[in-house]
Amino acid sequence: MKRLLAVSAVLVLSLALVTTAMAQGGQASVRVIHASPNAPAVDIWIDGNVAISDVAFAEVTDYADLAPNTYNVQVSPTGATEPIVIDAELELAADTDYSVAAVGLLENIEPLVLVDNNSAPAEGMAHVRFVHASPDAPAVDIAVTGGPVLFSNIAFKGVGDYLPVDAGTYDLEARAAGTDTVALSVPGVTLEAGTVYTIWAMSLVEG
Fold first, then answer.
1. Can you give the pTM of this predicted structure?
2. What share of residues in the chain are helix, strand, coil (percent, to 5)?
3. Which stretches within the chain are classed as H helix?
4. Who has greater pLDDT, 41 or 13?
5. What phi-psi label fits residue 47: left (phi over 0), alpha (psi between -120 and 50 degrees) or beta?
């Protein structure tokens, strides 16, 4: 357990700032996260056409607006038409923001579809959530160093709900779920007022 999240690459504090406006005017808004640690850079196909090209591991794209509908989404290595490593139907609703992450190892890669809440935090506050996308890491707690647990017992593909927190700089730590055993310390995480964040745990414990 001591090796859990033992290198900083495992807990990628993507802290993805989503200060862009929420989907409006009846549109859906979608961004893509490449969270498959042993997969190459990829192209994202929507209904048979390349929509986003050359997305590398740990990269988070900007939001793109799409009309509400059901789309066929495929993922292939950059510049290639095969193999298609993901082939899924994605149903998008109007006035809704989505994050679509490619998770798992290449041999069993799959989409993880999240609905994003980019509504403005209250004055002086930030919103933060946590996504566990490290396929060989056990469940973890994310806590303030020496303090309360923010996200409890989050396993692979699990998502901790958005929390309102006071804007400021925090020292965080990943603990083995249900214990005080610190696997990784992440000091100096700044959360700005009026901003929505997602913390992604990515990469592998082994290799």
1. 0.87
2. 0, 50, 45
3. none
4. 41
5. left
